[in-house]
Write a structure and sequence with these properties.
- The chain is built from 6 helices and 11 strands.
- It has about 220 residues and is an alpha+beta fold.
- The protein folds into 2 domains: about 15-75, no CATH class; about 85-205, no CATH class.
- The strands form 3 sheets. It has a 5-stranded antiparallel sheet with strand order 4-3-2-1-5. A 4-stranded mixed sheet has the order 6-7-8-9.
- Strand 3 and strand 4 (about 65-70) form a beta hairpin.
């Protein structure tokens, strides 16, 4: 697993801060944020283009309600791991203590089929956080969050496979499709047959073709 990815950070990437106190000194942090803990746990890149040149990140606490968004400078990055790094390295096999969790069992069951289909995919959400550091935030009812990188429209066969895996997995699987313009829900696309809510750096955009989203529809 690479310690530093030279590409620009993308949504869902995990970042370890070189000096959390300095990186976040201008942020009005909530009381639950532990700066010492951020030496060993990552923040996650989110979508927000309001500060060009800075990286929008999210901090997570011990509960779902404990989430905080802020920005960091690129120079604050000590280490970066992408969702695709976790998938390519089969990171779940390096954490045998998590193997019995339903989300991890589902990951093991579907990873080979995704790879065989030539799908560029990665692990996000709680599973990614738990696999990337020694802090486990997964539990028996956790969903499995995945991202599929698709610079061009996916072939029908890949859409069908993703839909099948999503329907038949032993846990709820949330698959986001990442296009050059933003990300959308696979389930929404399958249900609507086309129109989706595309999450972009400048807010949500309702569109019929997420690979050619302009003009957006409100």
């Amino acid at each position: 697993m690479a310690s530093l990815n030279l590409a620009a950070p993308a949504p869902h990437d995990l970042i370890w801060l070189d000096d959390p106190a300095s990186a976040l000194e201008c942020a009005a942090l909530p009381a639950w944020v532990s700066l010492p803990a951020l030496h060993d746990t990552p923040v996650v890149v989110r979508r927000d283009g309001r500060r060009p040149g800075e990286i929008p990140v999210g901090l997570r606490g011990s509960t779902r309600a404990e989430r905080f968004g802020t920005w960091i400078a690129p120079s604050a990055i000590r280490r970066l791991v992408t969702p695709m790094d976790l998938a390519a390295g089969c990171a779940w096999r390096l954490r045998p203590a998590l193997a019995a969790l339903p989300a991890i069992r589902a990951l093991e069951a579907i990873a080979g089929r995704l790879d065989a289909a030539g799908i560029r995919w990665g692990v996000t959400g709680s599973a990614a956080f738990s696999l990337a550091c020694l802090v486990n935030v997964l539990h028996a009812d956790s969903d499995l969050d995945l991202v599929v990188q698709a610079d061009q429209p996916l072939p029908a066969s890949q859409f069908q496979l993703l839909g099948e895996l999503q329907r038949n997995a032993p846990v709820r699987v949330d698959i986001q499709i990442a296009t050059p313009y933003g990300g959308f829900s696979l389930l929404e696309r399958l249900r609507s047959g086309g129109r989706v809510l595309l999450k972009t750096d400048h807010g949500p955009c309702l569109c019929d073709n997420p690979w050619q989203p302009s003009p957006c529809k409100s």
